[in-house]
Amino acid sequence: MTSTPRVQILNVRKQFAATAGRTSSERDNVAVNDVSLDIAAGEFFSLLGPSGCGKTTLLRILAGFETPDAGKIMIDGVDMTNVPPNRRPTNLVFQHYALFPHLSVEKNVAFGLGYQKIRGDEARQRVAAALEQVQLIGFENRKPHQLSGGQKQRVALARALVLRPKVLLLDEPLSALDQKLRREMQVELKHLQRSLGITFVFVTHDQEEALVMSDRIAVMNAGRLEQVGPSAEVFERPRTEFVARFMGAANFFNGGARRFIVRPEKLSLRPADASVNGQLVSRPVTVVERLYQGLSTTWTVREAGGGVLSVYEQNSAATQQGSLVSEGQPALLCWDRCHEVEMEAKGE
Ligand SMILES: Nc1ncnc2c1ncn2[C@@H]1O[C@H](COP(=O)(O)OP(=O)(O)OP(=O)(O)O)[C@@H](O)[C@H]1O
């Protein structure tokens, strides 16, 4: 017997009224278009896609801040579609923290407990526990303007965790942080999710961030789900051209009736006269450019037919010896057939 998913999104659709003066077609205003999805208890699930693809709208529908035009939201098998946000076992962490500037850290975190009639000792204990979870013990009396960006984000997180949601919804929570802090917070957030066992639904447009953090990823495009699967599967085996490009695998080959991709890190370059073992596919190319990036080198090559491809070479002890191919010269582009990923025929 399979257990009920924590979150079920069933044929959800949301269309916004056309903005005055906009000459968009009706289809442009469909922010979420017939989306169905199950998310398991304890899963770290990401909604990934470019700006405007509908991920925030879907998250807000889960939180209860938007009502779908059609479809249902179920949590633990209970229909939540028309339940207001404060009666759902969910909490939303916003991109820009939305802290109360005049309240201390402690009061910001305690804020939602009042609405749940949790006061006194229990409230104090829950606030202390939430501050400990996000490593902010000692910051109780500070005001938001006395905190760094990362600390503000922790307060926002503690404010959601203190309410003990079954599902934590996070809308690009790390996007205001600089790159280094963002990387640190990604790891921290993932550890926190693992230790608490709460289901996280995380919205991001950053594919690396989604890969680092998630158990599964749903890639969205123009209101629809393009692909849903474990992180490695979405990365290694994209099913559509959109997902392949979004995950940075823009090497497209045409072979007879077949159309497939091979990821840049699965390709290698050999000298034009090298003998290639029969297991590998090889094609003659011309090396266009070598881009040295320290940890790696990206080569741009051109096929005889004119197609431009990228080859990613990890910097290793072997590559220190110097490259066997050079710019402007012919070379052989090689790959193992098992790394060819077939693309589904394009939809409408
Ligand atoms: N309140 C609204 N009124 C009208 N249109 C809206 C509203 N909210 C969102 N939209 C439109 O719905 C579509 C999806 O928006 P949404 O914010 O869900 O996308 P997103 O993928 O989260 O984008 P971003 O990463 O830029 O936040 C967009 O075309 C957007 O302009």
From TrEMBL:
Transmembrane segments: none
PROSITE patterns reported for this sequence: ABC_TRANSPORTER_1, ABC_TRANSPORTER_2
GO MF annotation list: ATP binding; ATP hydrolysis activity; transmembrane transporter activity
Domain ABC transporter residue range list: 7-247
Classification via InterPro entries: AAA+_ATPase, ABC_SmlMolc_Importer, ABC_transporter-like_ATP-bd, ABC_transporter-like_CS, Mo/tungstate-bd_C_term_dom, P-loop_NTPase, Transp-assoc_OB_typ2
BP GO terms, sorted: putrescine transport
GO cellular component assignments: ATP-binding cassette (ABC) transporter complex
UniProt protein name: ABC transporter ATP-binding protein
Organism per entry: Humisphaera borealis
